[in-house]
Automatic annotation (TrEMBL):
Active site: E259
PANTHER family, sorted: ALDEHYDE DEHYDROGENASE, ALDEHYDE DEHYDROGENASE-RELATED
Signal peptide: none
Name listed for the protein in its UniProt record: aldehyde dehydrogenase (NAD(+))
EC number, UniProt record: 1.2.1.3
């Protein structure tokens, strides 16, 4: 397969070579995907300075929205034309199944981006606000206007598990709103994100409006979160890193948008228990459980728990673990050795605290290279178990029994996280009733939707703000109020 072979980074309209190599490893077989050079430190600073200059000069922000949309559509056309190299690069970098890279990231990402353009153009960005009669008479106010204006310079920091679609979610609304943006992808999967530099160049985006920088550590990301020239940080990743970003951004009072960790629950009403095996497969099949929205807590009626465990175990036994290059494989590896060790650690903790391994729980015998972990089912006695409380970010499913629906809601809400949830029930009214009581940013009841019109984001320690939907666009805008009147004579 042909892969992206770009080893430079894109800074303020030109390609830059560095001296520090970043070796990117294929987690499926531990082979080399390629090497990129880290963006030199002076060039990281130049990316920030040029983003500031381009925004303050209005070279992008002051263009009509329709003109910005035209440029971004050209950018998306360039990315779409790069399909034959971009998709294999995503597969190699993250070890994800081809169908996930092809459908869930590439195709869905492009559709989301194009929908975002349509949504933005349909929204009012300057509108009249009501003026009380007293203000009209005494204050001589002729007009009250609310304007939605760009925030300024935005740092977009994306994760390894869905690098391209997360970039689409951040870059397109941020750029549409008129911001200048610096994209910093995960050091584990940096190559695929360089397509945005090539696309910016092809679309003739003004210099400084978009830069793509890479690094092997976190120094550049920390600069982006602390430099006073950066107005906003949009981050997707772990709650632990999100907390650090909040602390780093506080001295300069940056706007911070965070989509963080999750320990999502999938709740099966008594009349929907037969669907549990399908729900279990959805947790691990595409990303080996490496998704912040993965519903890794399965809540089922206590008196049906044995039945569910048998069905889920049979479903996991049918999963073939292997390389994305193997067409028979239905689950790939986790991202690296550290991620695999985390799975092992939490399985051991689960047992130590009264849980039982119903299936899996270790490294598979084959393949003998790569960072694989068996799809794992844990039978847990309650929600106090560490495997029910912590985000493992791997193919580990916890099954917990509930007494009644009140208990199910209490179990689901008994978490520091609140990113998403799923509720299944043939009695739709009952299922919706449960969904309304869940303290989480999104709930899928018997189905799911992913589009530019549907927001996502977390309650509690799963994040701040929203991505996608009108709220996701407004996240990249400031609100200005203008009161307009005539001078007294």
């Amino acid at each position: 397969m042909d892969l992206l072979r770009e080893d430079r980074t894109y800074v303020a309209g030109r390609w830059v070579s560095g001296h520090e190599p970043i070796a990117v490893e294929n987690p499926a077989d531990e082979s080399s995907v390629g090497t990129v050079t880290a963006t030199p430190w002076p060039e990281v600073r130049r990316a920030i300075a040029e983003a500031r200059r381009s925004f303050d000069a209005g070279v992008w922000a002051e263009l009509p929205a329709a003109d910005r949309a035209l440029v971004l559509r050209r950018l998306l056309d360039h990315i779409e034309a790069a399909h034959d190299t971009l998709v294999p690069t995503m597969v190699a970098e993250a070890g994800q199944p081809l169908r996930f890279a092809e459908s869930s990231q590439f195709r869905s990402g492009l559709a989301l981006a194009r929908q975002t353009i349509d949504l933005y153009l349909s929204m009012p960005h300057e509108q009249s606000a009501p003026v009380p009669v007293d203000d009209l008479v005494r204050g001589r106010v002729a007009l009250s206007i609310r304007r939605h204006e760009p925030v300024g310079v935005v740092a977009a920091i994306t994760p390894y598990n869905a690098a391209i679609i997360m970039a689409f979610q951040k870059l397109i609304p941020a750029l549409l709103a008129g911001n200048s943006v610096i994209l910093r992808p995960s050091p584990l999967t940096p190559i695929s994100s360089l397509i945005f530099g090539a696309a910016a160049e092809a679309a003739e985006l003004p210099a400084g409006v978009l830069s793509v920088i890479t690094e092997s550590g976190s120094a550049a990301a920390e600069l982006l979160t602390t430099d006073p020239a950066v107005d906003m940080v949009s981050f997707t990743g772990s709650t632990a890193v999100g907390r650090r970003i909040l602390a780093q951004a506080a001295p300069t009072v940056k706007r911070v948008a965070l989509e963080l960790g999750g320990k999502s629950a999938q709740i099966y009403l008594p009349d929907a228990v037969g669907r549990a095996a399908t729900g279990a497969i959805m947790v691990v099949a595409s990303t080996a459980g490496q998704a912040c929205v993965a519903a890794t807590r399965m809540l089922v009626p206590e008196d049906r728990k044995a039945e569910v465990l048998e069905a889920v175990t049979a479903a996991y036994a049918a999963i073939k673990v292997g390389s994305p290059a193997d067409p028979a494989a239905t689950m790939g590896p986790v991202i690296d050795a550290g991620a695999r060790e985390r799975c092992e650690r939490y399985v051991a903790l689960a047992e130590r605290h009264g849980g039982t391994i119903a299936f899996g729980g270790k490294r598979p015998q084959s393949p003998d290279r790569g960072y694989y972990f068996e799809p794992t089912v844990l039978d847990l006695p309650d929600s106090a178990n560490p495997a029910a409380r912590e985000e493992i970010f791997g193919p580990v499913l916890a099954v917990i029994g509930y007494r009644d629906l009140d208990h199910a809601v209490a179990l689901a809400n008994d978490s520091e996280y609140g990113l998403s949830a799923q509720v299944y029930g043939a009695d739709v009214a009952a299922a919706v009733g449960v969904a309304r009581r869940l303290r989480t940013g999104a709930v899928n009841v018997n189905t799911a939707v992913f589009s530019a019109y549907a927001p996502s984001g977390g309650y509690k320690q799963s994040g701040l703000g929203r991505e996608r939907g009108p709220d996701g666009i407004r996240a990249f805008q400031e609100v200005k109020h203008m009161a307009i009147g005539e001078l007294a004579r």
